[in-house]
Amino acid sequence: MENRIAIIGIIVENPDSVKRLNELLHEYSDYVIGRMGIPYRERSINIISIAIEAPQDAISALTGKIGRLPGISTKTAYAGYQPEED
Questions:
Q1: Sequence-distant (≥ 6) Cβ neighbours of residue 75 within 8 angstroms
Q2: CA-wise closest residue to 52 among 74, 29, 26
Q3: Average pLDDT, the chain
Q4: Is residue 43 part of a domain?
């Protein structure tokens, strides 16, 4: 299966879910290109963006697991189809 490039946007409203979120991201760390986290203290939330290159199934599995965490919302945006170069 070919890899896809995507950005996963995550909003964390429940700090109790952060430990499990970080564990999930560590499980998929081989696919992570980069990560940026922004604490928005005025609203008591954290905003995280993850750049990832992985098979579609792996991205879907990760975002599904993240989306089931209490107090965490996630959305994924994919790059257009890009065939891999030889």
A1: 8, 9
A2: 29
A3: 93
A4: yes
Q: What is the pLDDT of residues 24-40, one digit of tens each?
A: 999 999 999 999 999 99
For residue 1, tell me if it sits in a domain.
Answer: no
CATH number for 70: 3.30.70.1150
Alpha-carbon span 10 to 37, nearest angstrom: 9
Looking at the structure of the chain, the number of domains it has is 1
Number of other residues whose CB lies within 10 A of the CB of residue 70: 9
**What pTM, to 2 d.p., does this model score?**
0.87
Buried b (16+ CB within 10 A) or exposed e, 40-67: eeeeebbebebebebeeebbeebbebbe
pLDDT-derived band at 1 (thresholds 50, 70, 90) equals confident
Q: Is residue 85 part of a domain?
A: no
Token representation of residue 86: 């030889």
